[in-house]
Amino acid sequence: MTDANAFDAVLDAIRFTADGLVPAIAQAEGSGEILMMAWMNRDAVVETLTTGRVCYWSRSRGGLWRKGETSGQVQRLKDFRVDCDGDTLLLVVEQDGVACHTGRRSCFYRAWRDGTLEVIQEVETDPSVLYGHQGHSHG
């Protein structure tokens, strides 16, 4: 199913911003843990649905960002959901390794505790192992 017209219905249901983007939340299959939030454009949506490998739009790089192509921490799509307003996507994924460029399972590793932000998840994988020494950030 690679014909772009096959995706018209889902693309019509999504309310992209003026920049052509929509926020996408990645949630771990099974545990329901929220792993990260990133942006998708139409091409990223179509590629994700076509290949089953999650692809985002990197605002910093100005191009498609195939999750895991640099780090090996691939996300495989298990379910693709559009919210009631069509302005946010929920991607239920099978995550290889860690989702966050800091080497933590989730990007949401800081929590408000007793008047301060506390780190509640430790680094699982050294980011220099994931990305070499180039540095990396979400789009």
From TrEMBL:
One of its GO terms (molecular function) is magnesium ion binding. One of its GO terms (cellular component) is cytoplasm. Its cofactor is Zn(2+); Mg(2+). It comes from the Bacteria. InterPro entries: PRA-CH, PRib_AMP_CycHydrolase_dom, PRib_AMP_CycHydrolase_sf. Its EC number is 3.5.4.19. The keyword Nucleotide-binding does not apply. It is an enzyme of class 3 (hydrolase). Belongs to the PRA-CH family. In the N-terminal section; belongs to the PRA-CH family. This is Phosphoribosyl-AMP cyclohydrolase.
